[in-house]
Each structure stands twice: as C-alpha cells, then as structure tokens.
Design a protein that fits this description.
351 residues, alpha/beta, nine-stranded mixed beta sheet, five-stranded mixed beta sheet, 14 strands, 23% helix, globular
Length: 351
C-alpha cells in the first residue's frame, strides 16, 4: 500500500482525500494610536500576501480599530479598516471573521456605544457572504444547533474545521455565560478534525506590559474550567491577541496556546527572566494549513519581509519574574496553581 501511495504522489495523482488542503491566515492588533485611521505598511503588505497565497479564510483576534476613548470618529475608523483589509480580501473572495478586541468593542460598562458600532459594521460582512462560487467543502457555515451571536461570539465550520470566536475583551472571565455556550458548541462538534478557538484576551499572560491582562486574572476556577474544557474536547489551538507579541506555547496538555503577533504598532517584550530587546516581537501574521485528516501546521510570517519566524529564535518558556515592577504588574501574585513549573514560575513552554 505504501508503495502505491508513493507512486501516486510521484505521478501527481494522490487520492482526493489526501490531496485537499485548506489554508487560513490569522491577523491581530492592527490599530495604532487612539482614533487613528491609518494602517501600517506591514498590515497592507500582509493583506496583499494573503490574497496571493491560496488562503480560504482570515481570522482576526481583535483590535482592528483604535477605539476605547470618548469622542472618536468610529464610523471613519471602521471605514478605514474595511478599506485596508476587508474589502481587498473580499475582492479575492476571502472572508474575514472577527472577534472583538478591547479597542473595538470592550465589554466594559463604559463602552456600549463602541460595541454598537462594532455590531453595525460587521452586519454588512456576514460570515457566509463569500460562499457564492465556492466548492461545498470551502463554504463557511454557522454550526447547527447552537446559539449564534454574530459578530461577538459564534461558531462556524469550513471543510473539516471548526472555528469558534469568543467575546473576550476583559480580564477575569467571559461575559454573557459564554463558558456554558462554548461547552455546548464543543459538544456539538465532535466530528470536526480541526478545532480552533480564537479571541482577544489570552488565558494567561505573555508580555511584561500586559502581565495583568488575561482571562484568568482573579478567576482561577473559571480559567481552570476553560482550560479543562479545551483539553477534554481536543481543541487544537487557542489563539489570542492583545499582548502584541508572537509566542507558540504549550501547558500540560495537547492544546497549543498561541499569542498572535501584531500588525499595528506597540510591540511588547515577552515575559522572561529579563526584559530584553531580543524578546520583543515584530510585526507578523500566521498561516495554518490543514487537511481532511486533521493534520495541521502553523507558520509565523514577518511583514513586509515575508520571512518565517523560526521556533528556535523564541524563548524556551514564558515565565513570571520574581519581582513587582511597573512593567510587570502583579508578577508576584500570579496564581501559583497555574505554573507548569513552580520553581521556574513557568506558564508556557515553547512548542
């Protein structure tokens, strides 16, 4: 049998189920200073690269516009964002699936107006808009038998893959009973070979300047349940933004936790023993390639050079330094039960 498969591959006629692959791209933190309607050359180059790469779908882990401040031109900011990203992608038949960031649609009590703008702008870009002309296996569909809250938290499928967007814009938990909702989604999607959950806030921190901004802050029972749920239902990746740095990490199980790099401004330093320039992230984006059997690979691509970030160039681990400092809030009070190595105060190991 192996000889037959090898011969088919050499002839360029591999079995159909082996030949089909899908590519998605992931972008994050594309905004600049408060109210900005400008986007970086890195973002514009990344969008062009994605359009030419055979990508079927783009995910965003938030902070697409520079809101979270009073008296900003939200209509103008969203128009600028769509002009730079959504419309060029759409011209190539590539949908962008959003998840809200704290600068887009914070769930904080003071930002209801921003959330309304977020809902309004994405009502014009529904998930299935670009299905016309696509092969059935490339079409994007909302997962059946679960409540959908587009564009805040929702679950869609494409081919063998499930993509779950979370409304994760504040620390300490998920608003609107999303944890129960997520469990329902994952119970109803056991047949899917690839499972990716994405949202703005990470479970645990990655960078100095955001060491106190994570979902588990102050809610150890909540985040323990979330982490166990992701493992139980064999989620492949949990993708997050907000920390403006790239890091591919594992904890104790099989889920891979990835801090998605930024394409805007404000790169940050990864949490390591010392704050070092070599551990400061660069403007980048991600590609995921997967097949119908559930095999999946990830690559991180710098923009605009389009060189790949090698795993070896990143720290072996993310750890909480033993200090309290202005650039590492609550370093000393990080919950000890979530260290995967209590002596080294390690949160993630590089994969």
């Amino acid at each position: 049998m192996k000889q037959l498969i090898a011969a088919l591959l050499l002839l360029g006629c591999a079995p159909t189920s082996w030949a089909k692959t899908w590519r998605i791209a992931v972008v994050s933190d594309m905004n600049q200073s408060y109210g900005s309607k400008e986007y970086t050359p890195a973002l514009k180059a990344a969008i062009q690269h994605i359009r030419q790469s055979g990508t079927a779908l783009v995910l965003s882990t938030g902070d697409m516009v520079a809101g979270q401040k009073k008296d900003l031109d939200y209509l103008g900011m969203w128009s600028a964002f769509h002009e730079a990203t959504t419309r060029p992608l759409g011209a190539s038949g590539i949908p962008l699936l959003p998840s809200p960031g704290n600068h887009d649609a914070s769930a904080g009590a003071s930002f209801a107006n921003e959330r309304n703008h977020y809902r309004t702008t994405w009502s014009s870009f529904p998930a299935g808009r670009f299905n016309s002309g696509r092969a059935p296996e490339d079409q994007i569909r909302f997962l059946n038998n679960v409540t959908q809250n587009w564009p805040l938290n929702y679950a869609v499928t494409m081919g063998p893959a499930l993509f779950v967007a979370l409304d994760a814009t504040v620390g300490g938990g998920l608003v609107n009973n999303q944890l129960d909702w997520l469990e329902t989604v994952l119970r109803n999607s056991e047949a899917y070979k690839v499972k990716i959950v994405f949202g703005h806030f990470p479970l645990f921190p990655y960078t100095f300047d955001r060491a106190s901004d994570y979902l588990g802050d102050g809610s150890p029972q909540f985040v323990a349940r979330l982490e166990a749920m992701l493992e139980k239902h064999q989620v492949d990746f949990y993708l997050s933004g907000h920390h403006h740095a790239y890091y591919p990490g594992r904890r104790l199980g099989q889920v891979r936790y990835v801090s998605v790099p930024l394409l805007g401004t404000g790169a940050r330093y990864l949490l390591t023993a010392e704050r070092s320039e070599k551990n400061r992230s660069v403007q980048s984006f991600l590609y995921f390639d997967f097949d119908s059997a559930g095999n999946i690979t990830m690559s991180a691509v710098k923009s605009p050079s389009f060189t790949t970030i090698t795993s070896e160039s990143l720290p072996l681990q993310i750890s909480i330094p033993r200090r309290e400092a202005s650039d590492c809030k609550r370093c000393g009070s990080f919950p000890s039960q979530f260290f995967i190595d209590a002596i080294g105060r390690v949160i993630y190991q590089r994969f």
